[in-house]
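## retry 2 of 3
previous attempt timed out at serialization; input unchanged, resubmitting
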Amino acid sequence: MDRGTSRWIRRAPLLVVAVATVALTAACGGNSSTGSTQPQGSSSPLSSTPGKPTTTGGPTTSAGGGSGLTVSDEAAKQLCDLIRPQLSDWRVQTPTMDKISLNATVIQWATQNGFLLQLPSNRGLVDQVTTKACPDVRDQALSAIEIPDLASGLAAG
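## retry succeeded, writing output
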């Protein structure tokens, strides 16, 4: 088995989870019965007021532009830490495979931090967070995946 096939097989379960998460999110359409866009079961409230953290501890970074979303520094670092180890793979894989991996990574991060329901309408959040928290990682990802911005690599919501 060649190295590329081995990587694909290792990542297949993550891809399946990502696709299932997107399909489930699209099918559910949020929590319309309560009028809330917060995922049920989330322990951290989503903030529409800049300056309030979405997770406890540490200062926050307003990374949502005009969206009103606030991403904690901890959550921003987490996204950078999820992307960084994939850069070497992205440099040798096809851009299509890289985009699939990028989507799975961003979905994982958004799910863990309560942004999954906001992500389809605010794909630029990923660029805003990485531009502020880890511009070097973002630049390397853009070069490896051959896209002008990370939002371009994400599946449309």
